[in-house]
Design a protein that fits this description.
The complex is a heterodimer of chains A (about 500) and B (about 400). With about 500 residues, chain A is mainly alpha-helical. Chain A has a domain of about 300 residues. Chain A is built from 24 helices and six strands. In chain A, the strands form two sheets. In chain A, strands 3-4-5-6 form a four-stranded antiparallel sheet. A two-stranded parallel sheet of chain A has the order 1-2. Chain B has about 400 residues and is an alpha+beta fold. Chain B folds into three domains: about 110 residues, no CATH class; about 130 residues, Jelly Rolls (Sandwich), CATH 2.60.120.260; about 100 residues. In chain B, the strands form three sheets. A seven-stranded mixed sheet of chain B has the order 13-12-14-18-17-16-15. In chain B, strands 1, 3, 4, 6, 9 and 11 form a six-stranded antiparallel sheet that branches. In chain B, a hairpin with a 4-residue loop joins strand 15 and strand 16. The longest helix of chain B is centred in the first third of the chain and has 34 residues. Chain B starts with 16 loop residues before the first helix and ends with a strand. In chain B, about 35% of the residues are buried. Classes of the chains: A mainly alpha (about 500), B alpha+beta (about 400). Chains A and B meet through helix 5, helix 6, helix 7, helix 8 and strand 2 of A and helix 3, helix 4, helix 7 and strand 13 of B.
């Protein structure tokens, strides 16, 4: 029975999220259900973490009951809304893809089935690893799982403080871990199914990770179908994502925050790219909460969140304004270097923004200066077994993307986004002490993992144009964007 | 977007029979070209850049037996140990024995009467010292030995050194030890490639950070090999089936990439399946303590079960002390004892002003310099003492409860 409750605890947030996401579209574009299930699970689980935070803030003990009740009500409301919108949009709630399947050549259907079987085998194996293996990876048992285990076993929200306060605490009620400032979202995600289980259980605590991987894959597939890729092409790219050894490792050895960071950031960024292309407000509505939750998953989430800013500025500013912005940023950078930067104190601590030093409270202190880490970076991306041929494909896609940049404005904005991410990664590994994360082969692949799914989606947009193409497709997906798109199509590019 | 850049239109059709023949021919040509290029590279001296020699100059060597010192000319040994043995050694950097098989030594003062031996240890058996008698010098004060036929020269070499026995009439000056890869033949290179591609990599604490996919210092890393094959095949196809003849289709190139990717993924699936087999045999059907006892730190967990039995039901504050605070053992001890309120960044016991009466101290062995005085019921260490009752002592450590006064 306990495992039944665990199943419910994992299914209900996913169902609730899926219904609300489905309700965002009246019509039923191809891929809407996989998209809804994928995005819905991640949003639903993140909502659970917020409900548990609320539970703690209101003084309730950790419990399944209140969040489950709220989720059930939300599911009912979301279901009603989705049904109503689907009816108004003239579509059934069923799977729209069925119609398209009849038009697919046999070889594509066979390929689809073979690919699906291959991925099923992969996922089944990874799920068995989660099921059988006790909590394994280092940071899981030193950092991420300590808090949920304490909360689960004590059934109270025991505080976690810094080691000095722990030493000084005469009551012995405050706990400590080195990373006591890390956000509580991931610990809460591990806690949730153990509340359903009724006791601490490592397998139960790790199961949401499998859900996150499945959700990432479904969300990716759904977005690929939204983009206009045929079922087998969408599954091919989804398979490429699910085949990545470093991603597989984070599923099998559940417990690190990176899989959640990758899911939330990449799904947000994919929805952002879709919004850039189609101006579909529903995509923006998906991107926003996921991107905003990033800093609550990992501190680095704040940096990933900042990656949207340059692209959004380019969206808003056109013509001479964007040129003025570029000149302004360059001038500001010059002044910053010449003046030696700034330092000031805020309520959160001291901030230093100097050419040789960046210090931001909670993010860390980074000595700036060029570090030659090409060898470990290239080895991890292009030689070791982490990524298969992912980065070779990325290089090919970068070359292939050039003609599209000239043709469509949204592609240039997408390139600004992708470029900002690469720029940040370059600064991180080549200009700061994070060089050791690369040299010692610690975080380098994990940081790139956050970004890999959205990069793969961007490759899809370069390599597999939508069918039907151009404006027709965009109007099919987002009829409300008709006016804006027509306007944009006329603009000089 | 132009047609030329449409690699995978949604209504894509399969590659036609004529194109398929071209693709197949290019793929086979790519395979041959990859093998040929690698062979030429390694036969023409590329091996030294991928697997550079490990050179231990005298400054890199430590004198383990005998008396002597570093001089300008080398590590000068003037006197053997009371047992008549001279021994020097240094780190070999865990090189692969299968590749690094040629050892060169250079030392002054070696006499024909000396019994000169090479010693080494491996990563798998760091405490087992292996020795091999060195053949007479091939040139004055220097010699070379091929370790290919030595059965114990295997795995990864951790330490290498020289051992000399016999009367020392004049100082022995050790100048240099060098271990390197000999020139490798085609069959040897093929065998190494096969070994690297079939090397099994089980889950480890490093797995979460990277997947090596082969030995980290592989001569034929699978990803690079697959990329080379894709590149050569695509290049051949482009040369023999020009772009204009295929109507600008990218599908053949995509096919090469897909096959390369699939080959890597098939290998990864094989690896995952073997890992899963091990996980299953170790943990399947086990629950609770039984499962944790089967884990990587089963022995530690067994010890901690005894510790837990001595701790009260109510979570208590626990100082976890170990020689290497924050290492695997101490971190796992803290985790396994939750919800007891442990913290493990202590290299010596807490002072009386820090730990309060009634709180607990867990000592993880070995912890040099710390001992328990049973008569005084006190934990003693250099510069400090803590009144405490010993609740449990075992091979892996001890649990104590802090006393008042």
């Amino acid at each position: 029975m306990a495992w039944g409750w665990v199943g419910l605890a994992l299914a209900l947030p996913g169902l609730t999220g899926a219904l609300w996401v489905r309700a965002a579209w009246g019509a039923a574009p191809p891929g809407v259900w996989p998209l809804a299930l994928g995005y819905g699970y991640v949003l639903g689980m993140l909502a659970v973490s917020l409900l548990l935070r609320l539970q703690a803030a209101l003084g309730f003990a950790p419990s399944l009951n209140e969040p489950l009740l709220v989720l059930a009500l939300l599911a009912l409301a979301g279901g009603g809304l989705a049904w109503r919108r689907a009816r108004l949009g003239g579509s059934a709630m069923g799977v729209r893809d069925r119609g398209e399947w009849s038009g697919q050549p046999v070889w594509q259907r066979v390929l689809f089935a073979v690919l699906l079987a291959w991925l099923g085998w992969r996922l089944a194996g990874l799920a068995q690893e989660i099921w059988w293996r006790p909590l394994f990876p280092w940071d899981a048992w030193t950092t991420w799982t300590v808090r949920p285990r304490v909360w689960s076993q004590l059934r109270e929200w025991a505080p976690f403080v810094d080691p000095q306060r722990w030493l000084a605490d005469p009551t012995g009620s405050a706990y400590t871990i080195e990373a006591w400032t890390y956000p509580a979202t991931v610990p809460l995600l591990a806690l949730w199914p153990t509340l359903a289980f009724g006791a601490w259980n490592e397998t139960a605590a790790n199961l949401p990770w499998f859900g996150a991987a499945l959700a990432l894959a479904l969300g990716f597939y759904g977005q690929a179908r939204f983009w206009g890729a045929s079922p087998w092409v969408a599954l091919l790219f989804t398979g490429a994502l699910l085949s990545l050894p470093i991603l597989n490792t984070h599923i099998a050895l559940a417990g690190y925050a990176d899989l959640w960071m990758a899911s939330a950031f990449s799904l947000a960024a994919i929805a952002f790219l879709q919004w850039l292309w189609s101006r579909d407000r529903a995509q923006a509505a998906l991107a926003l909460p996921l991107a905003l939750m990033g800093p609550l998953i990992k501190l680095e989430g704040a940096v990933w969140l900042a990656m949207f800013i340059p692209a959004l500025l380019v969206v808003r500013l056109r013509g001479w304004l964007s040129a003025a912005l570029a000149v302004g940023v360059a001038a500001l950078g010059l002044v910053w270097i010449v003046s030696g930067g700034v330092a000031f104190t805020t309520g959160f601590g001291e901030i230093q923004l100097k050419p040789h030093l960046i210090q931001i409270p909670y993010l860390g202190r980074f000595n700036l200066g060029y570090r030659d880490v090409w060898e470990p970076v290239l080895k991890n991306l292009f030689v070791l077994g982490n990524w298969h041929l992912f980065w070779y494909l990325a290089l090919a896609a970068a070359v292939m993307a050039v003609p599209g940049l000239r043709a469509e404005r949204w592609r240039r904005i997408a390139a600004v986004f992708i470029g900002s991410c690469f720029g940040m990664l370059f600064v991180l590994f080549f200009l700061t002490d994070a060089q050791y994360w690369a040299k010692e082969y610690t975080s380098i692949n994990r940081v790139f993992l956050d970004f890999a799914p959205v990069l793969l989606f961007w490759m899809l947009t370069v390599l597999a144009p939508p069918q039907p193409s151009g404006v027709e497709r965009r109007l099919l997906v987002a009829p409300q964007a008709k006016e804006g798109l027509a306007d944009r199509e006329r603009l000089p590019v | 977007m132009t047609n030329n850049s449409q690699i995978m239109p949604a209504g894509v059709e399969p590659i036609g029979p004529r194109s398929a023949v071209g693709v197949l021919a290019a793929a086979l040509g790519g395979l041959a070209l990859t093998a040929l290029v690698l062979l030429i590279f390694y036969r023409a001296g590329g091996l030294a850049s991928v697997a550079p020699p490990v050179v231990l100059n005298s400054a890199d060597l430590r004198l383990m037996s005998g008396q002597g010192e570093q001089t300008a000319t080398g590590l000068e040994v003037r006197q053997a140990s009371p047992q008549g043995v001279i021994s020097v050694q240094g780190s070999a950097g865990f090189v692969r024995a299968a590749v690094y098989r040629q050892l060169t030594w250079r030392a002054d003062g070696v006499e024909p009467s000396h019994d000169l031996r090479l010693m080494w240890t491996t990563l798998a058996e760091p405490r087992t010292v292996r020795e091999k008698r060195l053949p007479p010098p091939t040139e004055p004060n220097a010699g070379t030995v091929d370790m290919s036929a030595e059965p114990e020269w295997r795995g990864r070499i951790a330490v290498i050194g020289l051992v000399a026995k016999g009367p020392l009439e004049r100082p022995l000056v050790i100048r240099r030890l060098k271990v390197q890869a000999p020139a490798l033949g085609t069959a040897e290179l093929a065998r190494l490639a096969f070994e690297e591609w079939t090397a099994f990599e089980d889950w480890s604490q490093r797995s979460i950070n990277y997947v090596a996919g082969a030995p980290l210092d592989a001569l034929f890393p699978p990803v690079l090999m697959a990329a080379l094959w894709v590149g050569f095949s695509a290049g051949l196809y482009a040369v023999f089936v020009p772009f204009r003849r295929t109507g600008g289709g990218w599908r053949p190139y995509l096919a090469f990439l897909l096959v390369g990717w699939l080959a890597l993924d098939a290998r990864w699936q094989w690896d995952l399946s073997r890992r899963l087999e091990r996980t299953e045999s170790r943990f399947a059907g086990k629950e609770g303590d039984e499962r944790l006892l089967a884990g990587l730190d089963g022995e530690l967990y067994r010890f901690l079960l005894e510790v837990r039995r001595r701790l009260p039901e109510k979570p208590s504050k626990l100082y976890i002390v170990s020689a290497d605070p924050g290492d695997f053992q101490s971190g796992r001890a803290r985790y396994h004892l939750l919800p007891h309120n442990g913290y493990m960044k202590f290299s010596q016991p807490p002072a009386p002003g820090v730990a309060r009466p009634g709180e607990y101290v867990l000592i993880l062995s070995p912890l040099p310099g710390v001992r328990y005085d049973r008569e005084r019921r006190r934990l003693d260490w250099t510069g400090g003492a803590l009144p405490a009752d010993l609740l449990y002592g075992g091979a892996l450590g001890a649990l104590l409860q802090v006393r008042g006064g």
